[in-house]
Write a structure and sequence with these properties.
This protein is α/β, with parallel strands linked by helices and about 375 residues long. The protein has two domains: about 10-275, Spore Coat Polysaccharide Biosynthesis Protein SpsA, Chain A (Alpha-Beta Complex), CATH 3.90.550.10; about 290-365, no CATH class. It is built from twelve helices and 16 strands. α3 packs parallel to α8 (about 230-240), α7 packs across α8 (about 230-240) and α8 (about 230-240) runs antiparallel to α9 (about 245-250). The radius of gyration is 21 Å and the shape is globular.
Length: about 375
């Protein structure tokens, strides 16, 4: 297990630039999921993520990457938690690979031999100790094996909304050490499958959900980018030697290819490993998953507010103003109330939220 001293040259990148569609009408473009407090907690998802990383690293080693639309809100939320210079906004959205390259340049300019932990800002992880233990172990593997480490989640059902990681050979030299988890080579990444294929993945037993959490040493990932995505590698080099970081970002970022980190790097990298998480994990993909954390009545209705129901089962209700909601003869619905909008949707239709939000007036997006 890595000690605090060994983690001194480790940096965290928190990706906080997501859109605001999946939790509409509570979430909006300027207030996406990671800036919400959905479960009566005082802290937003982003604040919880920063606190989680503060259990592992000092504040000055934590970078939050957002976008220009959400920068003001992110700075306000984190003003007492991180140095202002550790919050960086992309000039425009160009997918995760350019975003991560921007952060890689930021870290490389400070320590070209550093290790990086990349985490999303909108995942619910409640076991802080287990999370820190897993990440320390992942850092140790990334340093020792000079490779990229992915964190996988043990699948509990054939989910079609997540990507999957197919594990290959176990690394015996690491697995024999009782202080670290079993580590596997990654055979391949599999995109979101249909239900039948997802069921086959689970039955095979060597697949994990892809949590989008990565650990690598800066020299390792720069070397991989030079081979597989030279445009991004050149951008990192420009940032590393730049005398004006912000100006270089403004001048170069819009020229980068729009591509995800999975396509640009992870699926092509020569040395990728997988550790299955020892912590709880929930991606909170939409209101259906959020409902698991609300109070439930005897009919299985989940609600964050006062609820009256007759002949109504398995609904999820969220009332921003904590008004009483009454249900009569309805099943498997999502009902969400805010001061300026109400959502009523079938649970099975939640994959269409983006199309729905596209149809609402601009002032409600």
């Amino acid at each position: 297990m890595m000690s605090g001293t060994e983690l001194s040259n480790t940096y965290a990148l928190i990706l906080a630039g997501g859109s605001g569609t999946r939790f509409w009408p509570v979430s909006r473009t300027l207030r996406p999921k990671q800036l919400l407090s959905l479960f009566d907690a005082q802290d937003s998802m982003l604040e919880l993520t920063v606190s989680r990383m503060r259990g592992l690293l000092p504040a000055e080693n934590i970078l939050v990457l957002t976008n220009s639309d959400q920068e003001d809100a992110v700075r306000e939320i984190l003003k007492d938690r991180l140095p202002g210079e550790n919050i960086v906004a992309e000039p425009e959205k160009r997918d995760t690979a350019p975003a991560i390259a921007l952060a890689l340049g930021w870290v490389a300019a400070r320590d070209p031999q550093a290790t990086m932990v990349v985490v999303p800002s909108d995942q619910l992880i409640q076991d802080q100790n287990a999370f820190c233990q897993t990440m320390r172990q992942a850092v140790g593997v990334a340093v020792r094996e000079q490779g990229i480490v992915t964190i996988g989640i043990k699948p509990t059902w054939p989910c079609t909304a997540y990507g999957y990681i197919q594990r290959g050979q176990q690394i015996s030299s690491v697995a024999e050490n009782e202080n670290v988890p079993t580590v596997y080579q990654v055979d391949c990444f599999r995109e979101k499958p249909n239900t039948q294929l997802a069921t086959e993945f689970i039955e095979q037993g060597n697949f994990s959900w892809n949590a989008g959490i990565f650990v690598w040493r800066v020299p390792t990932v720069i070397s991989e980018l030079e081979q597989h995505c030279p445009d991004l590698a050149h951008f990192v080099a420009d940032l590393q030697k730049s005398v004006d970081f912000n100006q270089t970002v403004q001048e170069r970022f819009s020229q980068l290819p729009k591509i995800s980190i999975d396509y640009a790097l992870m699926e092509k990298a020569s040395c990728v490993f997988n550790i299955e998480a020892a912590f709880d994990w929930d991606d909170l993909g939409n209101w259906v998953s959020a409902g698991k954390y609300f109070d439930r009545d005897k009919q299985g209705n989940a609600c964050n507010s006062a609820l009256s129901s007759v002949d109504s089962n398995n609904n999820v209700v969220y009332a921003e103003d904590k008004v009483r909601v009454a249900l009569l003869g309805v099943n498997n619905l999502i009902v969400v109330q805010t001061s300026d909008a109400i959502l009523v949707a079938a649970k099975e239709a939640m994959d269409g939220m983006k199309e729905l939000v596209d149809e609402v007036p601009d002032e409600l997006k």
